[in-house]
Specification:
This protein is of the alpha/beta class. 44% of the residues lie in helices and 15% in strands. Strand 2, helix 2 and strand 3 form a beta-alpha-beta unit. The termini are far apart.
Length: 252
């Protein structure tokens, strides 16, 4: 699998989908910059490739976002051809476990953190060549689902922001994308106590994401048929929607 990108910056690369995307891009000759808070994990990953550079980054810190962006540009000579924003935290939540602090934490990382790094990217450069800027969101942001009443809203806000800024970002030379994967076997989904249809291994999900990015799709959603069912839920009137989602809250 060759890639059309000579360089890439993966933000949230210390585990799961981000780690596997970084690994696969580096293995196919793409110069990769990998960022996360856990620098020891980044070092372990980058040491496996001679074309991988770790850059510590906490996206909730705006100064760190600015400095990391400047460092990537200094080392690469410009913004990379591909930038993937994947950093996120997750806590399953229903009404019984409702926790405003955990909701605030997820909003801070998943939504505001993504805004911080996008702001740093916008301020840093006006690319003459198209740069693919992909944000990993979630089908849980499409409509409110039981069990995701904290995580889902953070992703819904992120999807809304990316959709709203895409026309202007395209004018600036950014090819905006959304990556909406289904369930991936990671340390985050290990917290779930419900059935996860078509649970994917991280390497499989990474291949699907990269393949989608190589197409011209704005919304890269997978896997089917699970994703098609969730897209169908988006179309339903509330009465039917709540009849279906009520079944998800029934205790066995």
């Amino acid at each position: 699998m060759g890639t059309p990108w000579k360089s890439a910056w993966i933000i949230g690369a210390s585990s799961g989908l981000g780690e596997e995307i970084s690994r696969q891009l580096a293995a196919h000759g793409c110069k990769t910059y990998i960022s996360a808070r856990r620098v020891n994990v980044l070092d372990e990953l980058s040491n496996q490739f001679d074309n991988s550079t770790p850059i510590k980054l906490d996206i909730t810190n705006r100064d760190q976002c600015d400095q990391a962006t400047k460092k990537v540009i200094a080392e690469n000579g410009s913004l990379p051809d591909l930038i993937i924003i994947n950093a996120a935290i997750y806590a399953p939540m229903n009404v019984e476990t409702f926790d405003p602090q955990k909701i605030a934490d997820m909003i801070d990382v998943n939504y505001v953190g993504s805004a911080n790094i996008i702001d740093a990217i916008i301020k840093s450069d006006n690319p003459t060549n198209s740069i693919t800027l992909a944000t990993v969101t979630s089908p849980s942001g499409w409509r409110g689902l039981p069990g995701g009443i904290g995580y889902g809203p953070s992703k819904a806000a992120l999807i809304n922001m990316i959709e709203g800024m895409t026309p202007e970002m395209r004018e600036r030379g950014f090819d905006m994308r959304l990556i909406n994967p289904g369930f991936i076997k990671t340390r985050l989904t290990e917290m779930n106590d419900f059935e996860m249809p078509q649970l994917m291994e991280p390497d499989d999900a990474a291949r699907r994401a990269i393949k989608g990015l190589m197409s011209n799709k704005f919304d890269i959603s997978f896997p089917n048929p699970f994703i098609l069912k969730l897209k169908f839920l988006r179309l339903l009137p509330y009465k039917l929607f709540f009849n279906i989602t009520a079944r998800l809250t029934q205790k066995k």
